[in-house]
Each structure stands twice: as structure tokens, then as C-alpha cells.
Amino acid sequence: MPxxxxxxxxxSYTTTTTITAPxxxxxxxxxxxxxxxxxxxxxxxxxxMKEDIYDPSYQDAKGPLPKLExxxxxxxxxxxxxxxxxxxxxxxxxxxxxxxxxxxxxxxxSALGITAGAHRLWSHRTYKARLPLRVFLILAxxxxxxxxxxxxxxxxxxxxxxxxxxxxxxxxxxxxxxSHVGWLLVRKHPAVKEKGALLDMSDLKAExxxxxxxxxxxxxxxxxxxxxxxLVPWYFWGETFQHSLFVATFLRYAVVLNATWLVNSxxxxxxxxxxxxxxxxxxxxLVSMGAVGEGFHNYHxxxxxxxxxxxxxxxxxxxxxxxxxMAAIGLAYDRKKVSKASILARxxxxxxxSHKSS
Length: 358
Ligand SMILES: [Zn+2]
Ligand SMILES: [Zn+2]
Fold this sequence. Notes:
Blueprint: H1 3-10, E1 14-15, H2 24-28, H3 30-42, H4 72-91, H5 97-123, E2 128-129, H6 131-144, H7 149-161, H8 176-180, H9 190-197, H10 202-205, H11 208-215, H12 217-236, H13 241-264, H14 285-290, H15 297-302, H16 318-328, E3 332-333, E4 336-337, H17 340-350
Parallel strand pairs: 1-4
Antiparallel strand pairs: 2-3
Helix pairs in contact: 1-16, 4-13, 5-6, 5-7, 5-13, 6-12, 12-13
The protein binds zinc ion (2 copies).
Residues 159, 268, 281, 297, 301 line the site of one zinc ion.
Family: Belongs to the fatty acid desaturase type 1 family.
EC number: 1.14.19.1
Membrane topology: Multi-pass membrane protein
């Protein structure tokens, strides 16, 4: 790649400035206020959004968990999907190679609809996107079928604001299975509903494209997640209907779901915490590989407004590479990146000592 292009891609970040002296009220009111003040200073690079900033003042009420209410429709559909995906694995060797490429394309495309779309653009507002890119991402997101963007972002902002409490929809303190998929199979904890309803979602309500997806979500997902991925191999290169359905649709869909869910389960349970040892989320390289760049999860919870969801840029992070390419052709802009100095200050202040700079 020519040097000017690299410059173009890597240029034009909004970065933080480091403020080394803590403000006086932080000193007076102890660590919690200092934490809040630090968050406040770091979040200056994205003043338009506050709803994903961790709120340490929220604590779980004491007492037993309410009785689990199973959502049988979801349990049956998820079980059927996973049986279909397992059968799909047995069909992979006998697919036409075009079908492998197509299934892989659908995996990357729909994963970007979650990572670059629902996550980094719409939940966290870490960069801005022009209409053609937003249309691309909403189509990709609809193929991923993980609830519409509005609902995904509301759950995700609650996950950051009330991390690892009962108001976090996939509270990792309730174990691997619950934070992976179990949370989708039972009714939400009352705290999720209560706190989720108070989140400011006005930015998404005002975005016509997001509301359009929400309005036509059922026909949209049937077309993008199931019909289109199945018909393309069958129609264009004469793949059998069975291979198209079980490999390009069920297997691909289940892989993207599980890769995303691993961010909520594995990346909250296994890995180092170089940026903040006081939170549950962790750095997990394997998760990053599957979830196209979303496994640098201790960093991401420490700095939710960084468009790379990582201290680094293209290191095991296809989503950042994609956003940078979109920026190079003018479709993405205003990418928020935390300055190295702020990161190092945070590592020093709250890291677990595993960072190479420690
Ligand atoms: Zn996030
Ligand atoms: Zn998380």
C-alpha cells in the first residue's frame, strides 16, 4: 500500500489529551469520585454520548434471584438451529468450493454488521458513517439476526453501564452458560428492564435507518439471514438445497452467534486485565480471532469510546481494518482513539501488571 494511503487511513483521529493532575474534587471525595472524574476526562473525545460509561454507584440489591422463567420458543429455536449447524459441519467436505467462499463471506459480512455496525457505530458512537456505509452495515446487521440495532444497542449500553450486575443483560457473575446464551432463553431480570428503560436512546430513535430496520425487522431478517444465503449457492452455482441451507445458513449463522456470545462469556471470564483489574472483562486473543477484533475486552470496557476496541489498530482486529478502509474512501470519519498517554496512565493506575509496559 502506498505511503500516502497509509497516512490517509491512519490520519484524522480524534485523540484524548492527558490531564495528569487530578482535579481537586476527586481528591476530596475519594477513589470512586476519582474514578468517575477520570472517566469523565477520558470521555471528552466523544461528548455526544454518555450512556455506555460504567456507573459504579449501581449495586445489586441483596436477596435471592427471582425464579427463572423460561422462554420456550427461544429454547426450541436455538436447539434446532444448533442441531442444524452440527449437521452442517458434516456436509462441509462435500460442498462446492464456491459455497465455502460464500459461507465465509456471509460470516465476515454479518459479523461486521455486529462489530462495525451495532457495536462500534450504533451502541458506542465511536466513529461516524455516511449513508452508503450505514446501509451496508444495516443489511449486514440484519443478516446477523441478533435482534434489531435499537434493541442490541440498548442491551449493550446497559451491559457497559451496569457491567456484571443484575442490570447487565448478560451478567457474567451468573456463569459461563448464562452470559453466553442462557440470558436469551429466559425472561430478563427485573433490574435489566428497569435500568434499561431509563437509558437515553434518543440518538437511535432519531436515526431513520435504524428505525426502518426495527419496523421491518421480521421480513428483513427472513430475507437476509435465511432466504438470501440459501438461495444464492443453489441458484448461481447449482449447489444442493440441503448444502446451501445447512452450511451457508444454519452453520454460518450459529458460528457468528457463538463468536459474538464468546465476547460476553469467555472475554468476561478468561484473560488478563492489563488496563483495569477492578472490572470483570478481559483481553482474550482467541475471542478476537473469532469475533473479528472484539476480544480486547478489558481495554474496551475501560475505554468504550475507542473505535478500535483495542489499544492497537490492525492487530487481530479485522473490524478496525475495515473501518480504516472505509475512512480512506471517505465513508467513515471522526474515529475516536484514546491517546497512548491516557492508556499508559490508566495501566499504571488500575492495571493488573500484565501489560508489557508495566
Ligand atoms: Zn461494547
Ligand atoms: Zn463486555
